[in-house]
Design goal:
The chain has helices at about 35-40, 55-65, 80-90, 175-195, 225-230, 290, and strands at about 5-10, 25-30, 70-75, 95-100, 115-120, 125-140, 140-155, 160-165, 210-215, 235-240, 255-260, 260-265, 270-275, 280-285, 310-315. It is of the alpha+beta class. Helix 4 packs parallel to helix 5 (about 225-230). The longest helix is centred in the middle third of the chain and has 19 residues, at about 175-195. Bound molecules: NADPH dihydro-nicotinamide-adenine-dinucleotide phosphate and calcium ion. Calcium ion binds near residues 32 and 36.
Length: about 325
């Protein structure tokens, strides 16, 4: 059976006495493109059977349905139109997909089309205000990486939330490119989330729209692009740091795989959130090394080489604002 993952309280968060707004559940997951898993990745300790799409897709959907996120951010989606879009739509989600301009999936024989990022939100909780499909650039030049940014309006609270999903350039040696892509994404997000003061004199200025950025950044916390995100003027914090006792340390891994070149155990995936506007209520625990097992990821139990990340966030009270 699939190992159980607990929803835990984050560290350093005072347990509030009043009830917060109903939390918004956010899931981030690089689900492993089917064409890459079968045709490019060479996960030498993963049995080929475990990569069979007709079975693997149910493991991915089972994981999503176990936690029923309100917002779902995926990377390496190469089965959007034939699988995730129709299934998620039937479950009450609205989806958006953006393919990579030159997806490496297209090099694989019998591929199912390009992979890309997908963003789903629950239609009963949000209405859509705006969508931006971005091709990330670096030093003014377009790159092969993309992002989807959507501004949503929360029905219960009337508050807006901006959500972004991205997948930065992979592999070592490309740290500078990732950093430049991150800078480009941050610049776009500043433009999208900053709202000038309302023209109505009886309304307080709206300020910036609270932001959540989910992604496979392909970067350890020691990399420049991580520093850029944690120190940007947008006031972002990485949610999974709150799993650690001091609230300052990222998990030891979000991806763990064995290729012919060796074993790679690394923290690459993040959920960034505006810490002044949002608070984290719950985090889905990271499986232990024993739960992951000696052959690492993917496996019969875990359908991707990346772990899903999941957190509940809620809007902080805003005493200075008169709705
Ligand atoms: P990336 O380097 O970002 O990697 C693409 C994918 O490969 C990612 O999903 C990544 O997964 C996975 N990956 C990472 N490391 C390995 C590995 N060691 N073995 C197998 N897969 C791995 O690629 P780009 O987006 O920059 O695209 C590069 C590819 O795109 C080229 O190989 C080419 O096929 C194609 N291309 C074609 C062009 C054309 O003109 N036809 C132009 C440009 C690109 P993860 O993020 O999980 O690590
Ligand atoms: Ca991959």
């Amino acid at each position: 059976a699939r190992p159980h993952r607990a929803l835990v309280l984050p560290s350093g968060v005072a347990h509030c006495h009043h009830k917060p707004n109903p939390p918004i559940r956010i899931m981030q997951w690089n689900i492993l493109a089917q064409a890459l898993g079968e045709g490019k990745d060479s996960f030498v300790r993963c049995p080929l059977d475990a990569l069979n799409w007709q079975e693997r897709k149910y493991l991915i959907l089972e994981e999503i349905l176990t936690y029923r996120p309100d917002i779902l951010c995926l990377q390496e989606v190469d089965h959007y139109h034939d699988t995730f879009q129709p299934i998620m739509a039937s479950l009450g989600y609205q989806g958006s997909f953006l393919a990579k301009p030159w997806s490496p999936c297209l090099d694989v024989e019998q591929n199912n089309g390009p992979d890309g990022c997908a963003l789903f939100y629950r239609r009963s909780r949000f209405s859509l205000q705006a969508t931006a499909h971005l091709r990330l650039s670096a030093m003014m030049l377009p790159t092969n990486q993309v992002a989807i940014v959507q501004t949503l309006k929360c029905q219960e609270t009337g508050r807006r939330l901006c959500v972004a999903v991205t997948h930065l350039k992979a592999r070592s040696g490309w740290e500078k490119l990732r950093s430049a892509q991150g800078a480009n994404l941050l610049q776009s997000l500043r433009g999208i989330t900053f709202q000038c003061g309302s023209s109505r004199h009886d309304e307080a200025p709206l300020g910036a729209v609270p932001l959540v950025v989910c992604g496979d950044f392909n970067a350890e916390p020691s990399e420049d692009v991580y520093r850029r995100f944690s120190s940007s003027a947008l006031g972002l914090n990485s949610a999974y740091k709150l799993l650690s006792a001091n609230g300052e340390t990222e998990p030891a891994y979000t991806s763990w795989k064995i290729r012919p070149s060796g074993e790679s155990c690394s923290t690459l995936d993040y959920i960034w959130y505006s810490h002044e506007a949002l608070s984290v209520q719950r985090l889905l625990d990271i499986p232990t090394e024993e739960q992951i097992g000696p052959d690492r990821l993917p496996s019969y139990h875990y359908p991707s080489d990346h772990l899903s990340l999941l957190c509940d966030v809620s809007f902080r009270e805003q005493p200075h604002r008169l709705m």
